[in-house]
Amino acid sequence: MIKKTEKRFLNIQSDIIDNFSSLEDKEHADISFDEWTRDEGGGGITYVIENGKFFDNCAVNFSSISGEKLPKTALANNLKKEVKFGFRAMGVSVISHPNNPNVPTSHMNVRLFGILDKNKDICDWWIGGGYDLTPYIPIEEDILSWHAEAKECLSLINPDFYSIFSENCNNYFKIPHRNEKRGVGGIFFDNITDFSLEDSVKMLESVANAYLNSYKNIIEKRKNLHFDELQKDFQLIRRGRYVEFNLIYDRGTLFGLQSKGRIESILASLPSKTKWAYKKTDSYKKMEKELLRAINKDWNV
Predict the structure, then answer these.
(1) What one-character-per-residue DSSP string does 213-264 give?
(2) Using CB atoms within 10 A as the burial measure, which of 39, 242, 244, 289 is most buried?
(3) Is residue 107 annotated as a catalytic residue, yes or no?
């Protein structure tokens, strides 16, 4: 069961890698494909593009790790069985930082946590994941389609899920010390124990496909738009907010650290190019005002 489930997550990763790599001139980008193992059990595959024509950097990670005791950040409230024989946690995470500030940063992850029986097979489980969008130059058409496609995907699984998950996303991806949202939202869910193992993985596959299709549509519309030095500088400063959230608040980062994960893979979600600036120009302030008007709005459809 574990090997078959891992294979389905690997297929999700492979599909995203194929689509993202097609955006690059491979001879002019630094591409890494690393298979790794961990002493505590399990391992994964990390795929990274850096310094490309389309991506400043992006990472598409698969991991399947095991251990004896669940980290605090992984504890689910609805598990029916105690963790007597260890756990298995597997998933795919994606982060995309395009070079063109007209193309938003995006993030997606899908994950399954399984409690093992004495035969080291999964006997209880829960799933989580979601995806969100972080624009720098907000375009209303893109934001509305992003949410509409998420709603369409989830309506086939449970008509109530979109309204719940989109609100979860708004509440989770906040930067309290900035009093800002990280982006314009999407969907976020955790501790879902409603389905069989088969249907749980099917739901995660549907979410990953919806993310990829939605993001590809935005990329195709915006990847060739002109941008100037001011817009690029604004993007780099605003990326600093992404770093602040990931290092201070993100539960995925905390889980990776608490489970003694591979540091290079955990931190691959951070933008390779970013900056902080104390003094802001009038042009920056104007662009930031427009962006904050968009990201602090409730875009749920």
Answers:
(1) HHHHHHHHHHTT----HHHHHHHHHHHHHHHHHHHHT-HHHHHHHHTT--HH
(2) 242
(3) yes
Give per-residue pLDDT as tens, 95-130.
999 999 999 999 999 999 998 888 888 888 999 999
Q: Which of 28, 107, 147, 226 is catalytic?
A: 107
Q: Are the beta carbons of 247 and 253 closer than 8 angstroms?
A: yes
What tokens appear for 3 in the block? 């090997």
Element (H, E) at 73: none
The answer to whether the beta carbons of residues 210 and 153 sit under 8 Å apart is yes
Residue entry with tokens 């058409």: 141
Which DSSP symbol is given to 160?
T
The model's pLDDT over 126-174, given as tens digits with 9 standing for 90+, comes to 999 999 999 999 999 999 999 999 999 999 999 999 999 999 999 999 9
DSSP letter at 19 equals H
Q: Which of 240, 239, 237, 230 is nearest to 283 (CA)?
A: 230
Contact between 173 and 245 (Cβ < 8 Å)? yes
CB atoms within 10 A of CB 211: 29
Name the one residue in this structure whose structure tokens are 């989770």: 172
The amino acid occupying position 164 is I
CB 55 within 8 A of CB 219: no
Q: What is the per-residue pLDDT across 211-259, written as a single tens digit (0 to 9) for each?
A: 999 999 999 999 999 999 999 999 999 999 999 999 998 877 877 777 6
Angle between helices 2-21 and 197-222 (to 10 degrees): 0
The hierarchical CATH code for the domain 2-295 is 3.40.1500.10
How many other C-beta atoms are found inside a 10 Å radius of the C-beta of residue 200? 19
**pTM to 2 decimal places:** 0.93
